[in-house]
Amino acid sequence: MDDIFANRHNLLKTIEKCHEESFYSSKSLPKLVAISKQQPDYKIKNALKAGHRVFGENKVQDAIKRWSSLLDINVDIELHYIGHLQTNKVKKALNFFDVIHTLDRKNLAVEVSKYWTSSSKTKSFMIQVNTGDEQNKSGVSLKEFEEFFKFVNTLKIPITGLMCLPPVDEEPSIHFCILRELANKFKLNDLSMGMSLDYEKAIKFGSTYLRIGTSFFGKRD
Hints:
The protein has 221 residues and is of the alpha/beta class. Helix content is 41%, strand content 18%. It has 9 helices and 9 strands. It is globular. It starts with a helix and ends with a helix. The model has no long low-confidence stretch (mean pLDDT 96).
């Protein structure tokens, strides 16, 4: 537990410092989403003992299996879905996750609109943007974004922000800047960007959700 307690403490201190030094210091502190996918159960329990309550998962069935009993005990846990969401898992996801970061295609948006209501557990969605136009990566391309955004709005899905995964071989700040400008243009408040290796840069561009795994939990066993 000591490692996770120390990791979390150090991350929160760094996040606070970077936030204070950014142009977005007047806004709320970015939220640390501990990426718990594929982590062993004992690390999850240690994270809860350390006081952490915000976690990210990338598979619906795995998350339900892991978190159902823990949610009964810890009612203040906040779960974020950060993986590629299959259309046949939408109904379950809407009843289990607080935030979905990866709305990335029209058929998924249509499926969400069939089942989402104001009483669904999911209260907000983010559009995943493929800022690097990578063929092997999910996300709406920049040239198709405006059309997709308008389409999703016709479905009355509560979009609060944008998410991106910068190409591994490019400077992430370029992509954080692109996402920031896109959010400003379409008047969206949330930005899901920044992971273990680049979260400090993401904070400079106003990230509101930091998806951090290794720096929080340590290397996988």
